[in-house]
C-alpha cells in the first residue's frame, strides 16, 4: 500500500494536452516510457560527466560514466529509496530519468560555456532546458510538441532541488506561464528522492571514475571521513584482497551508507511531521528527503577533495579549456549565419524575429549535441583537428 503522503495516480493533475488514460500503464509509467523513448534520452549515451569523450584509440572512456549510465544509476537509487518509504516509485523513476536531459555536451564545462555565451540572451540553465525539451523540442507526436508529461513529472524536473525563486530562467518562465508549476513550494517527496539519488550516484561514481583515471589513489582517500573507514572495514574482513575487488567492496559500502542514511532520516522526519498527503509534503518548510547532518558534513569533505583532485585537475582543466573554445567558436558562427545549421534549424532561426530569439534556437541546437557531434561540427566549420 502506498503511504498517504505519496503521490497517487488517481489524483494527478493530468497533462496540458488531455489524453485518454493508458489501458495498462499508470500516468507516471507512461511518462517514464516517453522519456526513455525520446531522442534526448538516447543522446545521453554520448554526453559526458567529467571526462570529455574523444574518438582516438588512446581514450579509455568506456570505463567512465556518461550522462546515460549516470541517469540509469540515479533511477535505480530513486526506486530503492522511494519503495522503502512507501512512495510512488514510477513518479520517482520518471523524474530521475528526465533530470539530466537538458545537459549540453561536455558536462558542466559545456553548461558554463553556454551560460556565458547566452548571458546577453537570457542565460542557460540545464534544468530549464530539460523542461524545454520535454515540452517543446521533442517533436514526434501528432497532437502536441514535447512529450506531454504529467504536471507532477514537470514539477519534479523544475524543482527537484527545491523551490525556485524569481526571476526564473527564460526557458522555465515560458513553461511556467503555460502551466503553473508552483515554483515557490517544495516538490513531491518522489521528486526530492530523485534529487538525493542524484547526489548518491555521483558521489559514488566520481570516486570510482577518479580512481580509474589515476587522478588519485586509494591511499589519497584514507584520511577522508566515510571513505577511510570503508576501506578499513574491507581490509579487516578481507585482508589481502586484490586492488579492484578491494575498491569495489569499499565503494559499495559507501554507496549503501548514503542510501541507508537518507531512508533513516526520511523515516524520522515523516514520523515527526505525520504528513497526511502529498500536498502536506509540498507545504513543508524544508525538504523531507535529505542526508543527516553528520553524513552531509562528511560528504562536503569528499566533494572538496574531488573538486581539488578531479574537477580541477590539470588534465581536466586542459580539456575544459579545449571544449570551451569549441563552443565559443561554433556558437557565434551559427548565430551570425544560421545557414551553417541543418535546414530545419535554419528555417527556425531565420524566422526567429530578433537576435535573442535566434540565439535561443542556436542554443537549442548546440545544447542537444553529443560531445562527439560538437567536436565534429567544430571540425566541419573550422577545419580544425584535436
Describe the structure in your own words.
The protein has helices at residues 27-36, 39-43, 67-84, 89-98, 107-117, 126-137, 151-159, 170-178, 189-213, 218-221, 227-237, 243-273, 278-282, 293-311, 314-336, 343-350, 355-367, 371-382. The chain starts with 26 loop residues before the first helix and ends with a helix. With 386 residues, the chain is mainly α. The longest helix is centred in the last third of the chain and has 31 residues, at 243-273.
- By DSSP (H or I, 4+ residues per run), the number of helices equals 18
Approximate strand percentage: under 5%
- Which regions have little confidence, pLDDT < 50, spanning 5+ residues? 54-61
Q: What's the overall geometry?
A: globular
Looking at how many chains there are and whether they match, the oligomeric state comes to single chain
Q: Tally of extended strands?
A: 0
Cα distance spanning the termini: 56 Å
Query: Largest sheet, described in full?
Result: none
- Structural Rg: 22 Å
- State the helicity in percent bands: 55-70%
List the secondary-structure elements in sequence, H or E: HHHHHHHHHHHHHHHHHH
Based on secondary structure, the structural category is mainly alpha
What's the average pLDDT? Answer: 94
Amino acid at each position: 500500500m502506498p503511504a498517504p503522503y505519496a503521490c497517487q495516480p488517481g489524483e494527478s493533475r493530468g497533462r496540458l494536452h488531455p489524453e485518454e488514460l493508458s489501458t495498462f500503464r499508470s500516468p507516471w509509467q507512461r511518462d517514464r516510457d516517453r522519456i526513455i523513448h525520446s531522442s534526448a534520452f538516447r543522446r545521453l549515451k554520448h554526453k559526458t560527466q567529467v571526462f570529455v569523450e574523444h574518438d582516438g584509440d588512446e581514450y579509455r572512456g568506456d570505463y567512465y560514466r556518461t550522462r546515460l549510465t549516470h541517469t540509469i544509476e540515479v533511477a535505480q537509487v530513486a526506486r530503492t529509496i522511494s519503495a522503502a518509504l512507501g512512495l510512488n516509485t514510477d513518479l520517482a523513476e520518471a523524474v530521475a530519468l528526465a533530470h539530466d536531459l537538458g545537459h549540453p555536451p561536455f558536462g558542466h564545462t559545456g553548461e558554463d560555456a553556454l551560460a556565458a555565451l547566452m548571458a546577453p540572451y537570457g542565460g542557460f540553465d540545464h534544468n530549464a532546458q530539460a523542461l524545454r525539451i520535454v515540452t517543446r523540442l521533442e517533436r514526434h507526436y501528432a497532437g502536441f510538441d514535447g512529450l506531454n508529461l504529467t504536471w507532477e513529472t514537470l514539477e519534479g524536473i523544475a524543482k527537484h532541488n527545491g523551490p525556485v525563486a524569481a526571476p526564473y530562467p527564460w526557458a522555465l518562465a515560458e513553461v511556467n506561464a503555460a502551466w503553473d508549476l508552483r515554483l515557490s513550494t517544495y516538490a513531491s517527496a518522489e521528486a526530492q528522492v530523485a534529487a538525493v539519488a542524484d547526489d548518491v550516484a555521483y558521489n559514488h561514481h566520481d570516486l570510482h571514475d577518479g580512481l580509474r583515471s589515476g587522478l588519485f589513489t586509494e591511499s589519497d582517500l584514507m584520511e577522508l571521513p566515510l571513505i577511510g573507514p570503508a576501506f578499513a572495514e574491507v581490509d579487516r574482513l578481507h585482508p589481502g584482497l586484490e586492488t579492484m575487488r578491494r575498491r569495489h567492496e569499499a565503494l559499495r559500502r559507501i554507496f549503501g551508507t548514503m542510501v541507508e542514511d537518507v531512508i533513516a532520516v526520511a523515516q524520522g522526519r515523516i514520523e515527526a511531521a505525520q504528513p497526511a498527503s502529498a500536498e502536506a509534503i509540498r507545504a513543508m518548510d524544508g525538504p523531507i528527503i535529505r542526508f543527516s547532518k553528520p553524513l552531509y558534513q562528511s560528504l562536503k569533505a569528499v566533494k572538496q577533495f574531488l573538486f581539488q583532485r578531479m574537477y580541477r585537475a590539470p588534465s581536466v582543466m586542459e580539456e575544459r579549456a579545449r571544449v570551451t573554445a569549441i563552443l565559443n567558436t561554433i556558437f557565434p558562427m551559427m548565430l551570425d549565419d544560421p545557414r551553417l545549421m541543418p535546414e530545419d534549424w535554419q528555417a527556425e532561426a531565420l524566422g526567429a524575429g530578433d537576435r535573442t530569439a535566434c540565439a535561443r534556437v542556436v542554443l537549442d541546437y548546440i545544447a542537444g549535441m553529443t560531445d562527439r557531434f560538437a567536436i565534429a561540427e567544430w571540425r566541419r566549420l573550422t577545419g580544425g583537428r584535436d
